[in-house]
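Re-run with default settings, no changes from the original entry. Doing this only to confirm the output is reproducible before filing.
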Amino acid sequence: VFDGYSYLGGQRALAMANVTALDLDMVLLATSTPDDLFGSACQVQGALGAKHAVAFDLTAACSGFVFGLVTAAQFIRTGTYRTVLLIGADLLSRWVDWSDRGTCVLFGDGAGAVVLQANDCDRFLGFALQSDGSQNSCLNLGYQPKAQPLTANLSVSQGTYQPLTMQGKEVYRFAVNRVPEIIEKALFQANLDAKQLDWLLLHQANQRILDAVAKRLRIDDQKVISNMASYGNTSAASIPLALDETLRKGQIKSGDVIATAGFGAGLSWGAAIFAWGP
């Protein structure tokens, strides 16, 4: 099921960009819920027929798409690759506790993708990334070990992953403080001011977080992209899903400057500033 979501997202992005799978140099899959813990990117690459592309997974939970965007941009900027397919996909329904109404009603499943290509005009304007592992317990999907005896004196750990846990108030406080800061750092690197942004595209975690970040940055509500009412929190898929919907409505124009930010488990957070267009 997961690989199917990722494949469809990638296929639709290729069609929109008028690029074939054989043109791809890299397939980068941002996910924390793969079908295969060794990685699902290669299966997606194979299904797409991108036989010239290297493929690998990137795990950064709800920050995954932004971390993937920055990673892909560096490969292109160095001249290593020219065309990269970045997919953000997660199936959180696999990992929520359906008896916990504090989490199960918040999350959704989805996949979205973008094609990044080398261009004479660099439209990737700035970025900033950060992590704080000391707050990992605020939001995680942890492995619970269980001893399995092999001999009288030897045992191995063969447990399983436990359902997602989240301390909602702590995550909210983290997001409303750290996300505006990281966007301001990315804007500084891009030599831009928040007033020059055309769109604010945040990870779709919570409408209150989106509103608080926009207010702190003094960005008009009309510039804030939001579709979480339709899909919930889809982790690494939320940003490309929201981007795709806004594009298909004809709202984003070539040259529009977009600030995007992801934040979540790790804890991790990051922002990137880019101008939309071929």
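The CA atoms of residues 174 and 254 lie 33 Å apart. The two ends are 32 Å apart (CA to CA).
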